[in-house]
Amino acid sequence: MNFHTRKWIKPQDLNPNQTLFGGRLLEWIDEECALYSIIQLENPKTVTKYMSEIDFRSSAKQGDIIEIGIEVVKFGTASITLKSEVRNKMTRESIITIDKIVMVALDEHGKPKPHGKTKVEFVKDRLADK
């Protein structure tokens, strides 16, 4: 799994227990998956369709640094399925895992649009082809 994005836990990210608010973390995961999928599928109209069971294993507190990991599970006709793990860089503990996140590419009418992708592509390789 590739861990590219890091977040610093600030006061506005905390719940009443003074630990990382789960909703904030899910927002960050969803945004990271959307950005990744938009780039992979080369379609800015890519949206979240499904997120499987969420398993919170530990937490983070103010001042901790977390990192968000994403891995491609499979490519569908108009979708990409990812999995994600978030870990605490300070404690080295896994905070959350999500085994299945389905992102769907849409057309101008909001309907699923086939993307023709079958494997992970890197931007540097796309640029080399031009």
From TrEMBL:
What's one Pfam family here? 4HBT
Superkingdom in the source lineage? Bacteria
Indicate yes or no for the key word Hydrolase.
Answer: yes
What Gene Ontology molecular-function terms does this entry list? long-chain fatty acyl-CoA hydrolase activity
Keywords, alphabetical: Hydrolase
Q: Do the record's keywords include rRNA-binding? A: no
Which parts of the sequence belong to the HotDog ACOT-type domain? Answer: 1-109
Q: Which GO terms describe its cellular component?
A: cytosol
List this protein's GO terms for biological process.
acyl-CoA metabolic process; fatty acid catabolic process
Question: What Gene3D superfamilies does its record include?
Answer: Hotdog Thioesterase
Where does this protein have coiled-coil stretches? none
PANTHER family under this entry? Answer: ACYL COENZYME A THIOESTER HYDROLASE (PTHR11049), HOTDOG ACOT-TYPE DOMAIN-CONTAINING PROTEIN (PTHR11049:SF31)
Question: What family is reported?
Answer: Belongs to the acyl coenzyme A hydrolase family.
Give the protein name, as stated in the record.
Acyl-CoA thioester hydrolase
